[in-house]
Each structure stands twice: as C-alpha cells, then as structure tokens.
Amino acid sequence: MTITETTIPGILLFEPKVFGDDRGHFFESYSKRTCLEAGIDVDFVQDNQSLSHKNTVRGLHAQKAPFEQGKLVRVLQGAVMDIAVDIRKGSPTYGRHLAIELSAANRLQLWVPPGCLHGFVSLQDNTIFTYKVSAYYDKDSEVGVVWNDPELAIGWGISEKDALLSPKDQMLPDFKSLDSPFNY
Predict the structure, then answer these.
(1) CB count, 10 Å around CB of 56?
(2) Is 25 one of the annotated active-site residues of the chain?
(3) In this predicted model, what pLDDT tens digit does every residue of 121-139 receive, in sequence order?
(4) Which of 25, 53, 61, 97 is catalytic?
(5) Fewer CB within 10 Å: C terminus or N terminus of the chain?
(6) Are 178 and 145 a contacting pair, CB within 8 Å?
(7) What would the CATH number be for the domain defined by 2-15+45-183?
C-alpha cells in the first residue's frame, strides 16, 4: 500500500496495491501495521456505512474531546467528492480544505485525523461509503459547519439547488461561528 501526505498535515491518502487476474482482483483494504508505519496509532472501535443517492451531501462534521474521531474512509460502490477541513487552532492550514474523489474504481482511502471536519457528496446513485472510526459516536460532542459556507469556498461539484441534505446538516452554523475545540 502506498501512503501519500496531502497538503494538510496529518491527512493521508492510501492507495492499495491491487492484484488482478482473469478471475477479478484482490487488495488489502486495511492493515494495522501499515497504519502504525504511517504514524496512525489508533484502535478503531466501529465501522460505519451509508448508502446515498446522487447529490447527497453528508457533513461537515467532527466530534470534540473526549470523543474526537479519526476516520479512515473509502467507497465500496459508486463515487464521492470527499472533503476534509482543518479546524485545528494554530495549524498552518487552519480553515483550508482538501477535496478528493474517492470511488470504487480508484480504491483510494483517506485518513482524516481528529481536528478536521469531514463530509462528502455522492457523485453517483447507490454510492456505498464506509469508514472506520477511532471513537464512538456521541451526540453531545458533535461540531459542524454548513457545507456551502462561502468562506471555505469548497468546490463540491454540485449546485446548491441539487444538494440533498438532512435537516440537521441544513442547520449547521457557518465557519465564522465555529469556536474550534481542537489545537494543532
């Protein structure tokens, strides 16, 4: 597996080595040893999975201490534009985002460390998105920012009128209102 640093410190891109033949293909989708070698020393406690229609936006979310989550995310079917926003006070990339297409076809995975908001938009119908988390969900620890905040200037690749959002995600505050609980 090849692991590449991104433009935001701590966010890593995983590209598996795929072994294919006339029967299909095989690849290692997770290895604790590989994570440790990349500096990711976490115990994943839960796997989550969602099915989304095209243009479904999920995010931007994070959890604060003591339930801060690191996420190892990937797509099993379909494709998403995956977004991570650095909200760690003191970070040289505070307020900047990373956008990358993850798909079943490219098999890429992204490590989103604690201190980053995370979200995605589904680019195809019936997209299955899955992720490992390093802490359990805790409603009282949730923080978030509205997906289309102009200050963040995220290129989601869809129009606002086409976006499908949950009522909760529609009500998230703007970035200026965020009092980030994370430090770099």
Answers:
(1) 22
(2) no
(3) 999 999 999 999 999 999 9
(4) 61
(5) C
(6) yes
(7) 2.60.120.10
